[in-house]
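Morning F.,

Quick status update on the modeling queue. The single chain you submitted on Monday has been processed. Sequence for confirmation:
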Amino acid sequence: MQPVLISTITCPQCGHQHVETMPADACQWFYDCRGCGVLLRPKPGDCCVFCSYGDTPCPPIQQAGACCDPTKAGS
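Structure tokens below.
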């Protein structure tokens, strides 16, 4: 089954929502809100910003049920 690559991120600071395309094979650890500019980071226990603030979990979680390797952050 192919993962869903579209997620709507909602900023916890200002409530701004933006539809984003997620990377198919990686987690995204940072996201700049397009409404207020705050830098979003995953909540404790979540693997990425899409799992914390999106309406769809990231593709690695969808496919494997496992988080990305945090040692590869920024790659």
